[in-house]
Amino acid sequence: MDSPSAPDIPRTDRWLAGAFLLAALVLRILYAWHFRVDSDEPQHLHVVWAWTRGLLPYRDVFDNHTPVFQALCAPLFRALGVRADILMPMRLAMLPIFAATIGCVWKIARAFFTPRIALWSAVFAALWPPFFFDSIEFRPDELWALLWLVTLTVLVTGRLGATRLFGTGLLLGLSFCVSMKTSLFLAALTFALAALLVFRRATGGQADWPRIGRGACWVVACLPVIPALTVLFFILHGAGPQMRDCVITHNILPGSHSLGGVAKSFLHWLLWLLPIAGGGAVIARLPHSLEMRSRIAFTFFAAAFYDSTLLSFWPVLTAEDDLPFYPSMAVTAAPALLWLGDFAARRLRLPAFVLPGLFAAGCIAWIVRAHSPFTDETTDRIGIIADTLKLTDESDWVMDAKGEMIYRNRVSRYVMELFTNKRLHGGLLPDDVAARLVEERAPLVSTRRMPLAARTFIKANYVPIAWRLRTLGQVLREEGALTHGPVRFEIAVPHRYTVVTPAGMAGGTLDGTAFTGPRELVAGAHEFLPAKDSGKIILVWAQAIERGYSPFTEIKPDHTTEQD
Predict the structure, then answer these.
(1) Structural domain for 357, as ranges
(2) 384 near 404, Cβ under 8 Å?
(3) What is the mean pLDDT of residues 100-115?
(4) What is the CA radius of gyration of the chain?
(5) What is the full DSSP assignment across 319-340?
(6) Residue 564: per-residue pLDDT
(7) Which of 104, 180, 310, 481 has the fewest Cβ atoms nearer than 10 Å?
């Protein structure tokens, strides 16, 4: 493996790597507009919307994430205005975060290796498909991953003095304000430090314990500063207890950590020590100074222990949890891959740029094959927002699973995500969705992820009006019904209703008086007598009809996806 003193980047490598980085940029812009929408994305956007409306997360709007990312996004969200495709420009706003993350990969690799290796390391990190796709989505994990890379950059690219340690503590504290999963970072850094001490002892180095102790004190002293200020802000605004309940209590399920489960996780974690030790042994043989090998080893250990701790102990694993792992591991994995490529190229008498170029091209082929950048996979999810904006006014309340209607207040405090549904199933939270629908006279709902009682109520009192959307209403008479007398029905959610048939407004009498148009109906029993046999008859929220929607419109079939 080359040393940092090797010559500058050959022109062919520079141009080829630059072309791949440009391709990564172009693809990211295309995918920002076309890549399928994950259910977490509108959830975060709904919280961002709440900030722009003067609502305070935790107190006024539920969120089980720490607040910095959403708060930082609020000014841009407000500037973009109300639009159904708000997700796309907000995804584009993630580009600087992605670029900064790749820049950290380059900077760390450049501190260890040659400029050529650093450049190709950045290319491989930018184009590695799992990282590429997960980092397209609008979510706080991207900022969280960047803070991890910046922290590593501060720790390994120069001598560790008080300033760098002070910055490390602040960065970790800020990271906690983006995601509570930063506890994984602390564990990984602690394990990496322990492994580094073993590494140095095995390679003839000595541990400077006083310096290590002072450094740890700096980090521990500075880490709480930003979290304390953040918590203080919410306490002063009357949301301290709600913040604790949303961010901490809600995310910890009682009884989810048994002694047997912890022991099994620990044994799984121990199995990772062998490959991690193998990686350390390879680094120990590099032609670098002991100080440089120590920095390379610490970077490798930090990435490896992050992933091993995540896979062994974290209760719920999601694809976005790996966002910090891929670029941090690329710092050491990519140079190893390049060394193997250069070795093979010399044996095959090929130019050095061929094999890294083929690897990068293979990553692009993988990306394009997995999801075409020209196929729009966002239409249905964007359609939910567009339909909501057309059907409802700002004052209307709605009920969706995780905020996918974005611009409307939700009747339920909780989003219907994994922990909420487990708490509902275990009786730890009340299923009050039906009562809240009645209280707020909510005209528009979704049945996705709803608890059983809520789903039953919705199906009885709402009719399909668009893809994944239902509006207030009931089928009063099916097509081809044998009886043609009066139809008796119950209204649970009082609102302004009309009665329609496939041909338009139904004729007849409603509650004993001629039906001539939309009417406000109170909760309770009602009766409709059709003037003639007009086929299927549906009672429906009048505003939906007035705004061009019909319960008779054929709706695209719905299929559950991994992103739901």
Answers:
(1) 14-370
(2) yes
(3) 97
(4) 29
(5) GGGGTTHHHHHHHHHHHHHHHH
(6) 75
(7) 481
State yes or no: pLDDT of 5 exceeds 60: no
- Report pLDDT for 3: 47
d(CA 480, CA 535): 6
Position 390 pLDDT exceeds 80? yes
Counting every residue, how long is the chain? 564
> How far apart (Å, rounded) are the C-alpha atoms in residues 313 and 269?
8
Contact yes or no for 551/500 (Cβ under 8 A): yes
358 and 438, same domain (yes or no): no
Q: Yes or no: say if 29 and 22 are a contact pair by the CB < 8 Å rule.
A: no
Domains: count for the chain: 2
pLDDT at 295 over 80: yes
- Structure-token pair, residue 160: 């560790």
Distance CA 207, CA 197 (A): 6
- Report the pLDDT averaged over residues 278-291: 94
Q: What is the dihedral of CA 139, 140, 142, 145, to 10 degrees?
A: -150
- Contact indicator for 447, 474 with CB cutoff of 8 Å: no
Instruction: Establish if 242 belongs to a structural domain.
Output: yes
Contact 402, 39 (CB under 8 A): yes
Kindly report the pTM of this predicted structure.
Answer: 0.94
User: Contact, 407 vs 386, CB < 8 A?
Assistant: no
pLDDT over 70 at 247, yes or no: yes
Are 63 and 145 contained in the same domain? Answer: yes
361/387 same-domain check: no
Exposed / middle / buried, residue 43 (Cβ in 10 Å: 0-12, 13-18, 19+)? buried
Amino acid at 503: A
Shared domain for 403 and 276, answered yes or no, is no
Q: For 352-369, b where at least 16 C-beta lie within 10 A, e where not — what string?
A: bbebbbebbeebbeebee
- List strand residue ranges (DSSP E) for 322-364, in order: none
- Indicate if the pLDDT at residue 7 is higher than 70: no
Q: Which residues, in sequence order, are CB contacts of 100 under 8 Å at separation 6+?
A: 146, 149, 150
Q: How many CA atoms lie within 13 A of 19 on its CB side?
A: 13
Residue holding tokens 């086929």? 535
Same domain, 337 and 449: no
Of residues 370, 404, 369, 411, the one with CA closest to residue 385: 404
Residue 252: pLDDT band with limits 50, 70, 90: confident
393 pLDDT exceeds 90? yes
- Asked whether the beta carbons of 482 and 495 are under 8 A apart, the reply is no
| 318 and 363 fall within a common domain | yes
State how far the Cα of 303 lies from the Cα of 104, in Å rounded to an integer. 14
pLDDT tens by residue, 138-182: 999 999 999 999 999 999 999 888 899 999 999 999 999 999 999
Nearest CA to 152 out of 172, 136, 126 is that of 172
| Residue 85, both tokens | 């495709």
Which residues lie closer than 8 Å to 376 by C-beta, 6 or more apart?
A: 33, 34
Question: What pLDDT digit, counting tens, does each position of 450-493 carry?
Answer: 988 999 999 999 999 999 999 999 999 988 765 678 999 999 99
Q: Which of 338, 370, 402 is the last residue of a domain?
A: 370
Would you say residue 496 lies in a domain?
yes
Segment 406-433 shows an average pLDDT of: 91
Q: Cβ distance 463 to 384 under 8 Å?
A: no
